[in-house]
Amino acid sequence: MSNRTALITGITGQDGSYLASFLLARGYVVHGLKRRSSSINTDRLDHIYRDRHEGGFEFSLHYGDMTDSMVLTRLIAETRPTEIYNLAAMSHVAVSFEMPEYTANVDATGTLRLLEAVRSLKMQDDVRFYQASTSELYGGISSEPLSETTPFHPRSPYAVAKMYGYWITVNYREAYNMHASNGILFNHESPERGETFVTRKISRAVAAIERGLQSCLYLGNLEARRDWGHARDYVEGMWLMTQQDKPDDYVLATGEAHSVREFVELAFHCIGRPLVWRGEGVNERGYCRRTGKVLVAVDPAYYRPAEVDFLLGDPTKAKTVLGWEHKIAFEELVFEMVNADRALLDRTPVKQWEGQHDAQAPLRAAQ
Ligand code: NDP
Ligand code: GDR
Fold first, then answer.
1. What is the pLDDT of residues 75-113, one digit of tens each?
2. pLDDT at 365 over 80
3. 102 touches ligand 2 (CB under 6 Å)
């Protein structure tokens, strides 16, 4: 049996699924914390379940919740992890304005619960801890590349909660000498990205519009700029942080920023429908250059109470110390996401797809 055992909170999410595959391929025993839900929430882990029977590796999921410190303590005591990756979070910025207290409970106090569970079990010298911190901490008030030394200015309940997570991780490192590191990760996407984040919302809509299942894609702020990378590259960076002799905090980013508008244009380009824009502000529309049909429209319901307009990271420290660099380029990411959703749509019964589309309708303001 491997002596490297990882516990991943948030294993059912985008990053959790990539990280689980990454660690299993390196011989880790992997345990994951999974929330109870009334319907199956392990779709992203299906391939691992399938491979487990053939691969002979050790992979287990355990029910629990970041709001339940008893479970967290018991789980750590029972699984004796050598590395803990705290990826669990209410991770949607717009939704955090609707659920600020819950977001703080999971993202801020949840991180404390996990760290304190390690300490109360006297395992602080045996565990390496990774905290999923975020570029949202910066708040987008500067157009300079953001690094580990840039001051924070969180602009959402999510970012404020993550600010607590960041500092409590630093505090446990300084107070108890724990090997605890923050990865300050800029946006990273993939075909496994949650459907209500803008990139996946776009790739799904483009695939559905191509098949005639949707007529128009409604978006909020088209000018928002993000430093978008691929989740596969970023989970490797998380792991590199826990492999260092000394714990520290690192920015992972590509060093390139693109607007939501650019993402949309490239995504429609993938299906051979280039766009032309007309109108201004909330009246702006993206028309199909060939047919003249409106394919993209602005809906102010998707504007946020406080927007983060611009995020661009400076990953120099990660490159110098960890030897980490992103490998997957922006264009490749967009093409992969659109093509994955086209393929997904091909194997999804139309009725089911329409159901999924409708199911999101009442949540539109939060997508
Ligand atoms: P996802 O939203 O895809 O995944 C979040 C995970 O947390 C899911 O497994 C979810 O479970 C779980 N979770 C949510 N609430 C609870 C709870 N109360 N108890 C236990 N588990 C819970 O996020 P990503 O994979 O994209 O991100 C991973 C982490 O990295 C998050 O902390 C996020 O805030 C942070 N981050 C992400 C970035 C990105 O661009 N992706 C950038 C910077 C930071 P369920 O599946 O049941 O919903
Ligand atoms: P973000 O991701 O808030 O950066 O947080 P999201 O994809 O939700 O938004 C990116 C930008 O796009 C603008 N936008 C829209 N966003 C959504 N979701 N839906 C829309 O219709 C839409 N139209 C425009 C947003 O206003 C925003 O400016 C993600 C999450 O993964 C966090 O957990 C993580 O910490 C950060 O990335 C880094």
1. 999 999 999 999 999 999 999 999 999 999 999 999 999
2. no
3. no
Do 213 and 306 lie in one domain? The reply is yes
Catalytic residues: 134, 136, 158
Read off the pLDDT band of 136 (50, 70, 90). very high
CA distances to 197, 206, 305, 345 from 342, rounded to whole Å, are 18, 8, 33, 5
Is any atom of ligand 2 closer than 6 Å to the C-beta of 299?
no
Is position 356 within any domain?
A: yes
Domain extent for 361: 198-226+258-310+329-366
Asked whether residue 157 is assigned to any structural domain, the reply reads yes
Asked whether the predicted pLDDT for residue 367 surpasses 80, the reply is no
**Whether 216 and 235 share a structural domain:** no
Q: Is the pLDDT of residue 247 over 60?
A: yes
pLDDT in tens, 306-359: 999 999 999 999 999 999 999 999 999 999 999 999 999 999 878 777 766 544
Q: Is residue 319 part of a domain?
A: no
Do 48 and 178 lie in one domain? The reply is yes
What type of residue sits at position 359?
Answer: A
- Ligand 2 within 6 A of 367 CB? yes
Residue type, 54: E
Question: In Å, how far are 143, 189, 310, 361 from 330, measured between CA atoms?
Answer: 19, 10, 16, 29
- As a whole number of angstroms, the longest Cα–Cα distance in the chain is 66
Quick check: 112 and 162 in contact, CB under 8 A?
no
Structurally, the chain folds into a number of domains equal to 2
